Amino acid sequence: MTPSEPPTRTPLRLSVVRDVTIVLTLVVLGLYAGASFLIPLTIALLINVLIIALSDRVIALTRAPVWLANLAAVTVVLAGLFMITYILGSQATQFARTAGTYESQFDGVINRVTGLVGNDVTSFVRDNLISIDMTSVARILLGSATSMLNQFFLISLYVAFLMAERLAFRKKLRIAAGNPVTGAELSSVLDAITFSLQRYVGVKTFISLVTAGISYSVFRVLGLEYAETWAVLTFALNFIPSIGSIIAVIFPAMIALVQFETIGPFLIIVFGCGTIQFLIGNFLDPALLGRSLNMSTFLVILALTFWTTVWGLIGAFLSVPLTVCILIIFSHIPALRPIAVLMSLDGRLADDVKSHGPDRG
């Protein structure tokens, strides 16, 4: 090639596109077919990350032995998980049975709302909401919680073995690498991924607990039925940015609209809990998470749709943590780093900010 000739680009081979398509198809089919096995394992992995983060915090604060800190962290996290699944599981059947009562009371609610919003809006609400089968909605929302309660022992077993393999895995990773330099690089990447996941899962859990605790106090003061269930759902739904916080307000607000004769409790939940969700989501959440959730808004919606389609309701709860895991892993693999950049919100990754500092422009 002479200097005057422009450089030629290597054409994208059809075989490469074919192979990538086949691999992606097999991955999606594997996720769908192996949901009953992969969902408990994924939950166990995220719980394990949370336990390690809590254990490290206990060691930093109390200088306790590693085994004692691990035991305390496992006890606290698994006890909290059991309490959450027990509350949802124990109230699932009762709520499903009484859902028909809410349907029969809905006409009375429509009549009360007519004087406030007018006949046009009332007709729209009646035509679009009166046909909703509340019993089916209750079973869909709470059925997954009952299944999760049944799988609690399996998840606990996974967590126990993951904790037991924590130190041995590092040694096996160095041996499997076959090269001390490669082993050190793999350990460094694993440390970076683990730190990022610990920060995200730990901070997001704390924020969700604060939001659920404040919301539960409001529900109890109002005397809302199934206050514990709505608080637990608020905790879980806060792992879904934007959409989750809206849903967490809509469900208890609708129950308040049906349960109480006045519209006051409904307005308190909508504006009170809605304001709490807005403040925490727009100020506390970004302040604590920093750039740990630097994901494209479109990617968040796309991930929510994908994981919900593949794994159902549990997939919706896990969509953001799973996508964060993928983004972090891609960002530490040079060949996949361009994909991580495309997945990010502004094209910069966490390690870019550490290296170059924040953008002051």
Automatic annotation (TrEMBL):
Cellular location(s): Membrane
Assigned keywords, A-Z: Membrane, Transmembrane, Transmembrane helix
Record's protein name: AI-2 transport protein TqsA
Annotated TM spans: 20-53, 65-88, 140-164, 206-224, 230-251, 263-284, 304-330
Similarity comment: family membership: Belongs to the autoinducer-2 exporter (AI-2E) (TC 2.A.86) family.
GO CC annotation, single: membrane
Pfam families: AI-2E_transport
Gene Ontology BP term (one): transmembrane transport
Membrane topology: Multi-pass membrane protein
Top-level taxon in the UniProt lineage: Bacteria
